[in-house]
Amino acid sequence: MISTREWALAGGPDGSEKLAARAWAPTEGEPTWMAVLVHGYGEHLGRYERVAEDLCAAGAVVYGADHRGHGRSSGERVLIDDYAGLVQDVHRVLTQARTAYRTLPLVMIGHSMGGMIATRYAQVYPASVQALVLSGPVLGKWTAAERLAAAEEIPDTPIDPATLSRDPEVGRAYVSDELVWHGPFKRTTVNALLTELERGNTTGSLGSLPLLWVHGSEDALVPVADTKVGIEKVAGEDFTARIFPGARHEVFNETNREEVLAEVIRFAHRFAV
After folding, report:
1. Nearest 5 degrees, angle CA 263-CA 251-CA 169?
2. Domain chopping of the chain, boundaries
3. Which superfamily does 2-268 belong to?
4. For the residues of 181-206, what is the DSSP string, one character each?
5. Of these residues, 67, 70, 111, 249, which one is catalytic?
6. Is 249 a catalytic residue?
7. Cα–Cα distance for residue pair 109/105, rounded to 1 Å
8. Mean residue pLDDT across the chain
9. Residue 246 and residue 244: Cα distance in Å, rounded?
10. Among this protein's residues, is 156 annotated catalytic?
11. 138: closest CA among 113, 102, 165, 157?
């Protein structure tokens, strides 16, 4: 059994926004490690319910929050003027988690844009993270964002749900989810993302921090070739890559999701107490 708690956490500039935070914990036994989930662009943490349940079943307590301007958090929808602020919001989540679980090893798990944020968190707060998992991360470069930044007008073209997973039900749920942003990118957000990618590239290696990279070979949203540019800059001494044949962007929602989550859990169990 798993218990779930939701609350409003101060975030954003000077704590002026409210972040919709969540925690999942097993109801029997003590957790042996902590996971912090960092979700992707335009979505929300509620889409990670199954992931959190699987991690709890594997001994974790799981924390996370909807980014500002996303999901149930406050702020103009998907407007991000500086991704350094989102890194600080993640730090607020972790700081609160540490009031309840002071010594559990932390495995941070970031997907897509959240992979970039999680990587930047590990670069800014290296002592706070024991391991990092990146799922289809926007890292190094993102050709799609470069094209949007160069466009005279950003097109109002929603994400093709077929690019998310080979399971059509994942796409259908995404399209019908009212908490998902289905509108266009905002130029401010695109420019801020490219700036943050360059910050990550400049900061470089994560050194001895253990890193697991999982990605779908058929990811059309965030191509493996783009991400590899960033991985080569940040990967350190303890690095594992798993590229899943045929999988699309959301490997945690793929038809072989059990295989993907098993890989993540095996990695995380290296650090469990």
Report:
1. 130
2. 2-268
3. Alpha/Beta hydrolase fold, catalytic domain (3.40.50.1820)
4. --SPPPHHHHHHHHHHHHHHHHH---
5. 249
6. yes
7. 13
8. 96
9. 6
10. no
11. 113
Residue with tokens 């079943």: 57
Degrees to nearest 5, angle at CA 248 with 246 and 254:
90
| Amino acid type, 254 | E
Burial per residue of 38-60, b for 16 or more beta-carbon CB atoms within 10 angstroms, e otherwise = bbbbbbbbbbbeebbebbbebbb
pLDDT at 193 over 90: yes
Q: Is 81 an annotated catalytic residue?
A: no
For residue 52, give Cα distances in angstroms to 26, 46, 160.
10, 10, 25
> What dihedral angle (degrees, nearest 10) is formed by the CA atoms of 125, 130, 132, 133?
-150
Determine the average pLDDT of the residues in 128-134. Answer: 98
Contacts of residue 63, defined as CB under 8 A and 6 or more positions apart, other chains included, come to 21, 22, 23, 34, 35, 36, 37, 93, 94, 96, 97
**Which pTM value belongs to this model?**
0.98
Task: Tell me the angle at which helices 187-203 and 83-100 cross, rounded to the nearest 10 degrees.
Answer: 70
Of the candidates 73, 112, 135, 165, the residue annotated as catalytic is: 112
Task: Kindly state the helix (H) or strand (E) to which residue 81 belongs, with its residue range.
Answer: none
> Which residue out of 66, 89, 219, 226 is catalytically annotated?
219
Written as six digits, the tokens of 154 are 């950003």
Averaged pLDDT for residues 185-208: 97
